[in-house]
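Q: What would this chain look like folded?
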Amino acid sequence: MNGSLAPAFYVLISFACSSLLAVQNTGDSQSLTPGKGNAASSGEKELKETGWLLFRGDANSSGVAVGKLPKNLEVVWQHEIKQGAIEGTPVIVGNPQQRVYVGDLDGRILAFDLKSGKLEWEIQLPDKLGFVTAPAFRNKRLYLGDIDGIFHCFDLNGKEQWKFTTDGEIDSSANFYKDLVLFGSQDSKLYALNADTGEVAWALETGDMVRCSITVVENRAFVAGCDGAFHIIDLDQGKEVGSVVIESPTGVTPAARGEFAFVGTEQAGFFAINWKTAKLKWKYDDPQGGLPTRSSPAVSGKHVVFGASNRKVYSVNAETGQLNWSTVLKSKVVSSPVIIDGRVLVGSADGRFYELDLKTGEIIWEKELRGGIVGSPAVAFGRVVIATDRGVVYCLGAKETPTSGVPRRYPH
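A: My prediction, written as structure tokens:
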């Protein structure tokens, strides 16, 4: 597969998603307060203990990593898949050992040792059924769907435990609630399967294709769909309990903090929604005009950070919807940012990987990688893992200092 070609989602989503809806002008004046769904509490504890286990790091899709990174990030190892292409996001698992797992567009799943970069194993699906989703990890199993509409469960040795077939391509990375694994499909359904057996607990029909990953807070799931609506689902009942119009289709995964969720759309609007009241809190539009937002936001404190196709990375005040800052990069941004310790890590379509200052938006450094960056960073255990559409997996961290006068070789 040609690694320079983006999937149809990134080129044609505005055509594939059929519905364009009018804006709902409902105000909400409540302040942003921490709650049970706040990733700064239980979500961060889980990350600290186990790694970067989901597409956006935690169940709330916060895009926030805990802990520290080295001040200077260097490439400590890289692995190139011959004629490969990766547009999904890796995950980093800390138990039973620190490993990286990632799927590619040609139907491969690969497992690497996080420290050394050694390829532990690689499997190839029949008919090269590719992945644009990130794996999701739970109880020593990996869950992810493919572009042929099949959702898979593997053990940590790559042996398939079960699979489930939907009627549409799966672009939605999985999340979990109780004993359920959750994901969406282009067949317009949100699925809840028993994570152990793959049996259907329930399936909910939405208004159009579901391309985003599923965000979970308490017993609620959030889905932003191609029908131009933000859906609020009761996970115990498998029923929709509210929705908010967001004007246009989207494939962006909502980020949640406290009582609010944040999401951008194809018509460049960016929304904050009170999911408890199902009301719009604020909407941000770039006064200079915008292009589609296909980058899922990260939210920390008063910063909601996301990228857009106009080459900008934005930070919007989570309380007010006012712009904190915007920074222009050299190419469009479809990769989703990660926030860690006052730093923003984000990639762009021309293969540049950036660190920005969270407070100011200033570019601290940039590194040019081989291939465009569509997927997003995974951050855990002092390492950053990012993959490109030329099939190269990079791990950044602090290079070890050789000891005893013996040169240390790093894999390439």
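Confidence is low (pLDDT under 50) at residues 1-16, 18-49, 403-412.
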